[in-house]
Amino acid sequence: MSNPTHGNVLVVGSINMDVVTPIKKLPLPGQTIMAGDVQLIPGGKGANAAVAAARLGGTVRMIGAVGDDAFGHTLKSNLVNEGIDCNQVPMIKAISSGTAVILLDADSGQNSIMVSAGANAKVKASDDADVYTWANVLMMQLETPVQTNIDAARRAREAGVTVILDPAPACDDLPDELFAACDVLLPNETELATLTGMPISSIPQILAASHKLMERGSQHIIVTLGPRGALWVTDNHNQLFPATPVKAVDTTAAGDSFAGALAANLAQGKTIADSVPFALAAGSLACTKLGAQPSVPTTDQVLAFMQQNVS
Question: Model-level pTM?
């Protein structure tokens, strides 16, 4: 991996409007249920990670796309207000902005999500070499075209940039060239199972699945384990980092906050071992508030949380 010093994070990813719908239980086929007050909250895995990286110490540029519609104008101005450079985020006419309908279980904080890609399906990797040489870390997810990620990762690697992929939403037919172009993979347990077809019900099984995934080319795998923390796996090393328990209100942006925090720390030249505890704290704090981007914490909040929970 590169040895960065500036904290510059380039994010290639999705920008969505989240339509958050609180419910007591999922409806059965043909059943109509009453829901709580619907909220419109800026989201999208790419935008969430970009906001997290920006709030947690990174200087962030975004490659994405929105529709030339009401959601698109709101989403883009929201990112600009977070200090994110959106010169590579066009507003595309005659296509809707990405939209996610989130069914939120009001009791458990767990969610079910339906995503309409909209303009996210049109995102292309920049051809401008300066876009990549500026960056210390490239952060990607899978809500934009796979080929876009491969193209961006290759260009970033050529520029000596560390490439991080959050393989979500996971599917089982991703090409090896995508993994080979990435330095760090950030699957959760479900995504790891989907990517490998292997059981993941114990730490030894998670380790075995991680090593199987590493055969496809990535050097580091950090498996997020929800309230249990995260497991960092390399060819010859593994380390389990515990998480601090919190009462979950909404888990929507926990993984994105983890990813953005990790990217910001690695972009500043910190090691994975030093970065993962900070990223875990960011992910835990994100679970304690409703919504995706509104729940992403700041550096000061994460450091205070870590200080309060020093054992």
Answer: 0.91
